[in-house]
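--- STAGE predict ---
source: upstream dedup step, 1 unique chain passed
mode: sequence only
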Amino acid sequence: MATAKKQTKRASVDKDKTTIFVIVAIAALLVTGSLVVSKNLLSQGNYLSKVAGKKEVALKQLENNKQAASTLEQSYKDFANQDPNLIGGTVAGKGERDGDNAKLILDALPSKYDFPALTASIEKMLTGYSIEEIEGVDDALSQQSAVPAGSVEMPFSMDIITNYEGLRTLLEKLDRSIRPFQITKIDLSGTNAALQSKIEAKTYYQPEKGLQITNESVI
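--- STAGE serialize ---
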């Protein structure tokens, strides 16, 4: 009888121990799971906070850019429509010094390498002259493949037949041109009535800059 009571008591104790172990194990799992979930929630919260901060910065920058763009647009219109223009011509005129300021600047410093356009401009200056040759390099494709920074030289040469007065007039035209021309060498031969003139010079163009949009990762 006493032995049966001891066995029953031991079984009850073992059962209680098992129950306590199960409860402790479940509690440990719950605590561990809660810690993992809490860590993930904190990480997500920090990430969302960073994203919100970046979005706020980007929004402020967009608002500033919008205001700056509006101001820039108005300034451009005021500058382009200034009459008389920067070199004393009229906006609506058709002469060499006429046109709006935006057109004048684009003509003075083109945004790309365009030798045919340069040749046409020089031929216009040489109206009335005997032109033997205009030389340069028509390599627009190679120029576009590697866009340099700053203004880029465009060397060229021209052979004409004129007289001393005609040569002086041509040099004055080049000097007064809205497009910058720099004379590097002049070779003369012949007589005043038929003066063979080989002029080596260079002008410039300014590669245009595009709008660069970048992506930023939030970590």
